[in-house]
Amino acid sequence: AQEAATLWGKEAEAGKSEKTKWFTDAKFGLFLHWGPYAYFGGDIRGKRYYGITEWIQHRDKTPAAEYARLAGGFNPVEFNAEEWVEIAKASGVKYIVLTSKHHDGFAMFDSKVSDFDIVDATPYKKDPVKALAAACKKAGIKLGFYYSQFQDWHEPNGGGNSWDFDPKKKDYSAYYRTKSLPQITELLTNYGDLGIIWFDTPGNMSKEESAEFLQKVHQLQPGCLVSSRVGNGLGDFKDFGDGEVPPGVVKGAWEAIFTHNDSWGYSAFDQNFKTPKEMIRLLAEVASKGGNLMMNIGPMGSGKFPDMSEKYFRATGAWLKRNGEAIYGTTYGAIPPQPWGVTTTRPGKLYLHIFEAPKNGRLLVPGFTATAVKANLLALPSANGLRFEQRGNDMVIQLPAHLPDDRNTVVVLDYKGTLGEPAAL
Ligand code: H79
């Protein structure tokens, strides 16, 4: 198939192709893992499981019928799509990816393909995906759907009760013809324009099966991007491993995905949230390597975000309000990581993300091959700017005695000429 040859790296062409431009410019996304596992919150049948709570059925070996019965208690009456999107906006994310169906096989949308969905199998009876799509459209934020296309613990042919499951009895092709592909069609037909279909864990899908998913998405919505976890080297952008940042600059369209605490799905006993300082620095580090950070929130069974997630995301958004120019629409840093922090670039501007100010206040930027025009604090510019001095390819900037933000103070350096291309992985 012709279209199946659209490998992410080639198509993205330094991350600036027309189709992926919104994505490579976005830099910060919000991943949402939400399903019946949020209602369990890491606690099922009287047993507690720390971390990866969306895997609770598998870890607890809960039989599918029993899981379905318990899932019938899921009733997120406090869910408010507009509230979620308001928090997302205030956090500075440019796209949201919601789990439309995770490995437990439960559809968070009104599906005609399977009754194991929020409308038919819970007292909630409404379609939260519909509400979220409407709120995102209104707010001008891109929406994507996570969809587990290979594992489905509710269906024997999707893996079923995999702890005692005989893979030889699994007929994946029957599963994807009768559930995965039809549900993908529903998602791409009933919820307006989508930014992303985020496939996950392709297992041992064949190249033809991966290609069929990719083609189905592109056929129904040509502008919708597909994650590389559709399998077999296909997809419109690349995802690294869960919680993984590549060791250096990577060209093309890509994303690093992180949990906010130690779980994707909501956990009632995990308060190990990344602080705004950690989030802001991680975002800068990923941008300095040329990628997006998609960070997760696990909304609660009630439909609300955990307080700490909301608070820390909003704080990150407040930083972005003042420093977003150094993140959105930038490319990887022309200068490699330094003892003081990392850099991002756009034509004529080099952004210096300072995590640790040098003791003597003299910020060294080695390998600076362009001609500096002016230097200033991005969030708190002064009329005269900062003093700088260029000796050959060493640029030294005199910083103020106290930097205004000990999490990440950005200095913007305007320049003429060209900076070298960093080595890419
Ligand atoms: O949706 C999130 C994860 O649930 C999903 N990808 C992200 C985005 C994912 N699917 N598979 N994995 C992650 C790998 C998971 C492996 C493990 Fe386990 C699950 C390790 C511990 C629990 C299963 C049970 C394998 C070992 C024990």
Explain what the structure shows:
The chain is α/β, with parallel strands linked by helices. It folds into two domains: 3-326, TIM Barrel, CATH 3.20.20.80; 333-416, Immunoglobulin-like (Sandwich). It contains twelve helices and 18 strands. The protein has helices at residues 8-12, 21-26, 36-40, 56-60, 64-71, 81-91, 118-121, 128-139, 172-190, 207-220, 276-288, 307-323, and strands spanning 28-32, 43-44, 47-48, 95-101, 142-147, 196-199, 225-226, 238-239, 254-258, 292-297, 331-332, 341-346, 349-354, 362-365, 371-377, 388-391, 394-398, 409-416. The strands form four sheets. It has an eight-stranded parallel beta sheet. Strands 11-12-13-18-15 form a five-stranded antiparallel beta sheet, covered by helices on one side. α9 (172-190) packs parallel to α10 and α11 packs across α12. The longest helix has 19 residues, at 172-190. The protein is elongated and about 70 Å long. The two termini are 29 Å apart. Mean pLDDT is 94; it is low at 1-16. Bound molecules: ligand H79. Ligand H79 binds at residues 52, 54-55, 58-59, 200-201, 242, 257, 264. One of its GO terms (molecular function) is alpha-L-fucosidase activity. It comes from Chitinophaga lutea. Residues 14-325 form the Glycoside hydrolase family 29 N-terminal domain. Keywords: Glycosidase, Hydrolase, Signal. Belongs to the glycosyl hydrolase 29 family.
